[in-house]
Amino acid sequence: MVPLDPMGPPVVNGSDGPNRTGDATLAVPGSYGIATISTNASVRRRDDEYRNKIMGSTVRKYAEDDTNGEASTCGRILIFLSWVLVVLTMPFSLLVCFKVVQEYERAVIFRLGRLMQGGAKGPGIFFILPCIDAYARVDLRTRTYDVPPQEVLTKDSVTVSVDAVVYYRVSNATVSIANVENAHHSTRLLAQTTLRNTMGTRHLHEILSERMTISGSMQLSLDEATEAWGIKVERVEIKDVRLPVQLQRAMAAEAEAAREARAKVIAAEGEQKASRALREASEVIGDSPAALQLRYLQTLNTISAEKNSTIVFPLPIDILTYFMKSKEAFAANTKAREFDRQSGQQE
């Protein structure tokens, strides 16, 4: 309880002592001093709860210490007996005690069910005690997992079949043995699930055109999830995306129609440019009549160069015009003669 100035406001002071019971006293200003109100029942109840908690944790701690002490004593006895067995069966025991692991392997040793200090052993030779030591070999080489085809419903409701390849390796041999029952099987199952989840959030055109981006996102997701298992995912590649036959036909028809439309537009543009070029050529030929005769000769030269049996002889249009004018004049003279004859007969 903290006394305050009689003219000041009332203050509730919570106890912050070692018992942390949360008891409270209320200081009320008055003319004759300070009146104290204490919640005795709640204080006693909280003290009892805290006391029981402390006693329970202490009992558990002592029980664990006793268990660890018994296990430690038992372990020392078994280790001593194992060494005695090794010495008595020397040198035959050396064939059992010394083991060798390859350069790409590591050995995780368990002594009486517990991991030995120092981490995984290897590469090379290492020593184990018979009957109390067990070890597991871990291969550190990169493994390849061919993800089987997965039927996936894309974001735009199209069913596709997708398969991929995952390259991974063990980065921490001790963690891969102690933290997960079968690190390789777990990684493979996670790869299948990640492939389905990733493809299910993409549109079909994104799956077909952004394979590298999808592979990178899958690799990051798998690497983050398998880090606690001692696995390092190095690379993910999407192999093939299979579409339904009907969808393939529809996409092929759409692509063919688009190509035909582009071809028609290109042909129309070509015709337009050709017509403009012909108009300009006609204007040039109209200004110079001899140019038409030169063009005839050039065409004849082109035909003869191809070893064709057909020979085209260019005939000047001026000659044909002369014959056409002579024919018209002859027809006019014939009509005039017949008219004169009919007139003479009538007279």
What does this structure look like?
The chain has 347 residues and is α+β, with helices and mostly antiparallel strands. The chain is 54% helix and 20% strand. Strands 1-2-3 form a three-stranded antiparallel β-sheet, with no helix packed on it. A three-stranded antiparallel β-sheet has the order 6-5-8. The protein has a three-stranded antiparallel β-sheet with strand order 9-10-11, covered by helices on one side. Helix 4 (183-200) packs antiparallel against helix 6 (211-226). The termini are far apart. Residues 1-39 have low confidence and may be disordered.
The biggest sheet, with number of strands, parallel, antiparallel or mixed sense and barrel status, is: 3 strands, antiparallel
Tertiary shape: rod-shaped
Level of helix content? 40-55%
Structural class estimated from helices and strands: alpha+beta
Termini separation comes to 164 Å
Order of helices and strands: EEEHHEEEEEEEHHHHEHHH
Unreliable runs: 1-39
> Would you tell me the overall average pLDDT?
76
- SS strand fraction: 15-25%
Number of strands: 11
Radius of gyration: 51 Å
Count up the helices: 9
Strand order of the biggest β-sheet: 1-2-3
